[in-house]
């Protein structure tokens, strides 16, 4: 067993010896000489206390920069104190990790306080949890810190409507205070990725969103994360209340087979990813075989399984929790003693690895000279003896870890009761009975289909490996189909997906390895045929679900990349992001309003990227750009209210330079044509969006790119009233900012001037009645065109903006337009509330409907699962209640439209 010895009799001498071995410790001595003097005169404890007192005062420093400077100097002094006491053996490993964590706690509190003070905000309702090692008071010497930030939207900043944005800014500033590199270094690297669904949630997550996430889709690994959660900074009382609400998620009184199997699957995943051999001379003492993580997992998995029934097993700290498992007779005393000794030895070695260069690494150096330095810091003069003792320690850990769940893992992983046999020619009666019990209406059809798969009649099962993976997958697959409530629909759509795979080994392997992914896939197929078709065409998107982390930022182009390559690169990125947005919306992980922004931001980015690419390509072929251009959005994109599958209403305006006036028209026309091609052309990667340029001056008869002067003249002299209504949703997406401002000023001036009010009102009524006659709704669930739907609502708002003659009330976004028209007096308070309530409901329903079934509008075609999802989106207890509420809001919108504009039918 590894035996760590002090390298000197007292802290000051130990630090001196250590600084002769470890370059980082030598740098500390040079950078904070005053700390070294305090260490020599009063000892490590006094230096530690001094550093903590400095940190505790840092939050009230005059400026953020002063806070950052104080924290960084204090961190250096604290590192010196900890290293000195650790190397001298004055503090135990548990003392060392506790003091490292205590400093992190104080630093996090100070950073949050400084960030709040800078904005004049109070911490009420905003709080930060320490997770992982920080939550358990087990930070290592050069650890990053895992934290998660939450806020109660009803409490933080007195429940103001901007609570989310303010909380985000505060948390981002807090993290920057800690992790930004300055001349004094940094305090801590911070990691917020353990929050719910980190790739789609903001840095600060509302408690309501977090609760919904954990209640609906929280996974077992996340339950293990929350074992160690500890409220550290901000509103601690509010944090403790939130933590209490998560207790049923973390600690289940009765663990079903599936949850235990999932925990065991995590263990198998860890085993498969361990990578290095046990006998590696330069092992990772944390992540490698026989490392610290195996001890932590040994404890945490048993806590998760047993802690729901025994509160005594719910501790955060690894060693005390291990002793609690002994008391509960879940672990034998000799095993616990060996693992405890190994944990202490490995943690001490880990600290000394990090003392060399203050690097966040847990791996022993491969170079013998550097590994000898670690051995010397551990009190060893003989590297061979050190290596031998380290291997012995890790061998002990590996043996006990391998025995964990060993018996259970030899059992079958299926929890389906009864036969599930799909081999042979004849049907197995037991399998027919099992499938019937799972809710399949035609078990024979299911059996026949699966038998064909086993016979290799689809590309995914044409190899032995593919058929073996299918066999392993089927019990969980069928059980998940049953859980949707519509197993026949789920099976039909899975069949379409599965038989559309060109090759299936990778997909099947993912589904076998990722139980959550399989459940997710089946649910998606049952609810959303539109997403099902997308998956069937592009099964590679399943990898996006595994990571839940499609690249957030668009691709950066190589200067040498050609136009077509850029088109494909953007399409690949957009497909992943769009699928992830749709998936999260469908599974209640993204509110409808945020989904609209996400779709719109995605479209904005794609348009900007393709506009830049089109400009480069046009310049390459036809010479330098003779002036400036802008691309503007209208319609849903203009209002940042895009849905899945929406097309883009675009307008391209240019202004020629003096020297380029003659060739400008032709150049910008070519640019516009390339841009339309870049967005809407079908390539091997599909298209980006359908584009609609009909809202440009003169519609289809006009040029695809229009000069600013022609735009000005048309909008003031020739534009129809409906064109001016469309202009109320004008928003610049790409191009020259100065030109964009002038274009927007032209549009605004045209909106507020022109025809008398009575003529405009007559035009609007005529247009609404013509639209009703010529493009009637296809049913009550045609949310856009139905009476009292989104078109009615938009007409009311756009009429208000045209009649107000007030440029300050023109807003592209529907929600904002309702507010400004209420403030302007066009809408009464009751009317504004009715329209706002209606818009939120209609938008939520349309967002889910579009991502699930596209343009289908008959509720008779909605699956039961989709009806439940629509009801959830509307915060209704069921679909019948939703239908009643939907009818009421449509009636309210129709009444306001009738009052403001007039009836739909000309003979009413």
From TrEMBL:
One cellular-component annotation, GO: cytosol
Molecular-function GO terms, alphabetical: [glutamate-ammonia-ligase] adenylyltransferase activity; [glutamine synthetase]-adenylyl-L-tyrosine phosphorylase activity; ATP binding
EC number: 2.7.7.89
Broad class of enzyme this protein falls into: transferase
One of the protein's GO biological processes: regulation of glutamine family amino acid metabolic process
Domain Glutamate-ammonia ligase adenylyltransferase repeated: 22-244, 519-744
Domain PII-uridylyltransferase/Glutamine-synthetase adenylyltransferase as annotated: residue spans: 280-405, 773-890
One Pfam entry name: GlnD_UR_UTase
Keywords tagged on the record: ATP-binding, Magnesium, Multifunctional enzyme, Nucleotide-binding, Nucleotidyltransferase, Transferase
NCBIfam families: PRK11072.1, PRK14108.1
Name of this chain's protein: Bifunctional [glutamine synthetase] adenylyltransferase/[glutamine synthetase]-adenylyl-L-tyrosine phosphorylase
Species this protein is from: Henriciella algicola
